[in-house]
Design brief:
Alpha-Beta Plaits; globular; four-stranded antiparallel sheet; single chain; alpha+beta
C-alpha cells in the first residue's frame, strides 16, 4: 500500500466544511485541522501511484475551499507500536 500525506491550505472561513468534504473522498483515511503553515492534513492510502492523481488533483484540489496542496509520499512507517511489537515477538513463549 502507498501512503501519502497531503498538506492542504484552505479558505479560513470554510475549514470545517472543506475538511469534511475531503474526509468523504475515497482513499482518504484521516483529515486533521491544525495550526501552523497548513490548515488541513489528509492521510491517503492507495494501492497504485496512479490513484494519487485521481484522488489529489482529481478530487481533493477541486473541493471548494481548497487553495493549495503539497503531497508527501511515505517510504516507511516508524511508530512506538511497531517498535513494541518487534521487541515483544516471542516474549510470551518464555
Amino acid at each position: 500500500m502507498i501512503k501519502a500525506i497531503v498538506l492542504i491550505q484552505a479558505n479560513a472561513d470554510s475549514i470545517p466544511e472543506t475538511a469534511q468534504a475531503i474526509a468523504d473522498v475515497e482513499c482518504v483515511n484521516e483529515v486533521y485541522s491544525c495550526a501552523g503553515d497548513v490548515d488541513l492534513i489528509a492521510i491517503i492510502t492507495v494501492s497504485e501511484h496512479e490513484q494519487l492523481a485521481n484522488v489529489i488533483p482529481g478530487k481533493i484540489s477541486k473541493i471548494p475551499g481548497v487553495v493549495a496542496t503539497d503531497t508527501h509520499i511515505a517510504f516507511r512507517s516508524y511508530s512506538s507500536q511497531d517498535t513494541e511489537a518487534a521487541f515483544s515477538i516471542g516474549a510470551d513463549s518464555a
